[in-house]
Structure formats: structure tokens, C-alpha cells
């Protein structure tokens, strides 16, 4: 799969069809987009699916300009770039959000944002852009069908409580929240305190992002060995695949989505987001209000 894919929605079949658009680089490396061939572009709904965690925003801006006559110009960006930079100064989350707001899109589709900051910053910069979030609980529930049975859902820290609770409610399970242990002098993560009541059985750990997997290895080490764990991470960065897979070896099954190219291959089970995106695009095409 390419980092940027261009689609239109076939209103009769509800399927995505490829549009004759490509990313083009000039001799000195500056990037734009252009039509390929003489085919006319669809005037209804145009979609740009961004699969890279570090997008070139000039691609998005130029695409929105190229398809400016389309009724809806939808940026499919399941992973919001730099979403975890919501507390940093300067804030890359807010910077990327403002770029999205100014790019010329009419709608954006994401799944499991790290926090509300990114999308809220985009809305503050351009309230007209429609915000659409895929149903995380439904995606996880479908992915783990046939696994378990689980005794509960575990959130690694307080920040994961919201998403862990959504998944737990969908699965009809209790939710347990672990807590982090940090070095008082440096603030660095030392390990985890396991949630009370998790002593044996099988549980599903739910979080939004996995980099190298070290924090999840620490969580696994903190929970009693008699407990069997599966892991769901919506966005599998898996930086350094060999190290990541080794760090996650304490989990029976590791689930993610194909929001990032790093989720391809290896022992991880990746859920294809295309059916969920298609459904949302159909809703956008028939929604005159421009918002979820």
C-alpha cells in the first residue's frame, strides 16, 4: 500500500474506487499531486487515505485543491499525526490539527485519537470541518471474537480508562485500571502497579498506541504470571519490529488495525479498517449537516 491513496465513493455499490490521481515529485524533490490520464474526476465524494504517520501536508493541500469541485473532500487519517504531542510545547498535535483545518478538506475520519486535543484544535481553527470517529468498541469486539473468554478489560493507566471502558461495556466485562510507577528523581517510568482483583484468568489489555512495546512488557511483568493477557493497540507503530515483538512476547495474542504500515506482517493480528471507513463514507455522502 502507498502512503497516499485516492478514492471516490461509488454511490450505487457503496464501494471505494480508485481515482486517477498520483503523488508527483519535481526534480528537486518538492511534491504535489496530479491527474493521471484524461479521465474526469468524480464530483460527488472524494477521499484521500493517508497511511503514513508523518504526512507531507502539501499532498493534502494540493489534493484538496485538485478536487475542489467535489461536494465532499474527506481526509481518511485513522492515525492522527503527533496526537501524543498534546502536552508538549510547542504542541505538534495542535500544529498538525491546524494544518488539517486549513487544507481545504470538508471532513476527516479518524479512529481512537490519543486525546480530544487534536480534533478540538482542528475545530477551533475551522468549525466547518466534519469530524468522524470510527466505532472503536465495535472494531475491537469484532477482532477478538473467538478469543477469550475474558474475565475483564485492563487499561494500562488512567489515560486509557475511557477507551478501556468503552470496550469493556461492549464486551459486557468489568474494567480494571493499572497505575504507573515512576522514578521520583527523573520522572521516568519504572514499572506498573497491577490493578486490584486481577489474580488469574484471561484479560484483554486495551490502549491506543504501541511504539517499541517496552511499557507493555513492564505491565506484563507487573501482573501475576497466572494471568493470561491479550493486547489490543489501535495504532501499531512497532518501532524496531524485532524488539517490539520480543517485548510483546508475554501476550498470548496481539491485535491492532492497519492504520499504520508497520502493522503489516509478523505475529500481530491486524484488523482491516476499510469496511468501517466505507460505512462512514456512505454516512458522510448522505449527511447534509457535515458532522457526526
TrEMBL record:
Residues 153-216 form the Phosphoribosyltransferase domain. It is an enzyme of class 2 (transferase). The keyword Nucleotide-binding applies. Its EC number is 2.7.6.1. GO terms for biological process: 5-phosphoribose 1-diphosphate biosynthetic process; purine nucleotide biosynthetic process. Gene3D superfamilies: 3.40.50.2020. GO terms for cellular component: cytoplasm; ribose phosphate diphosphokinase complex. It catalyses: D-ribose 5-phosphate + ATP = 5-phospho-alpha-D-ribose 1-diphosphate + AMP + H(+). GO terms for molecular function: ATP binding; glycosyltransferase activity; kinase activity; magnesium ion binding; ribose phosphate diphosphokinase activity. SUPFAM superfamilies: PRTase-like. Keywords: ATP-binding, Glycosyltransferase, Kinase, Nucleotide-binding, Transferase. This is ribose-phosphate diphosphokinase. It comes from Mycobacterium paragordonae.
